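Issue: ligand-bound run for phosphoric acid mono(formamide)ester - logging full I/O for the record.

Environment: standard queue, default settings, no custom constraints.

Inputs:
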Amino acid sequence: MLSKGSCFTSLSTFYQDDILNILETVKSFDDQNLKRFIPNKKKLIANLFYEPSTRTSSSFYAAATYLGHEVLSINNVQFSSVAKGETLEDTIRTLSSYVHCIVLRHPEEGAASRASIVSSVPIINAGDGVGEHPTQTLLDLYTIYKHFGRLDGLTVSLMGDLKHGRTIHSLVQALELFDVKINLIGPTDLKLPDYLFREGYLESVELTANLAQTTNVLYMTRVQRERGAQGNYAFTKLDAENLPPNSIVMHPLPRVDELPSWFDTDPRAKYFEQMSNGLAVRKFLLDRILG
Ligand code: CP
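Outputs:
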């Protein structure tokens, strides 16, 4: 499914075995020497970011560098020919003739898929508007797998802007491959899109005591105000009291005010570990795709 030369634009075509195989392989990239430099047959990777990023762009940059590759970073697209009105397709055609792989973040849903059609090199989707964020999902799953040793049998409560959250959209598709109970928690205006909703999902506008007490993984997201979303919710001290001791709280970050910093020192707060797992996952991805 994910092999040398392949694009990685969506999780919609993955099977359970593909995911488990990836999570087991990521372990070998997640070792004490995570930051050692590996001299390799050097390749050039374009980090093409039309939207802001801290974690995804820098972890891909770091992963590429530690693997011995070089990175061409374009994250100020206003200084590229995009500012002159160049289409995504022409930009991709151009870059793909210079580099070996393109990591693309773009504000439009489906952009990575469009790019993969005209690109002569692999495209990795680093977030396409409100579409997907599949590399984030691999690090999310890896974080859960590392903590619980499994995905089957867990209850995952997704809380926040489920409508615009691309991390949610990829994660739901991946969790659907496993025996996972999914709770959807958030404002009614920010509900999960219909195309992703499945029978059996429990919906609630708030994290009730009962939902919290039966949750293994609480996965929070922020309101995506840059996409016109509105809504207010926040993790509370009562939520923290209700969550079981062996549960974990995740967040793809950046957070705003939905996940207060007083919880950061709680052993169940896994969002910084989750973020740091991005390096191993992206090392794995570049290694697998670039060969
Ligand atoms: N989680 C995530 O995609 O973070 P960035 O926007 O900082 O890349």
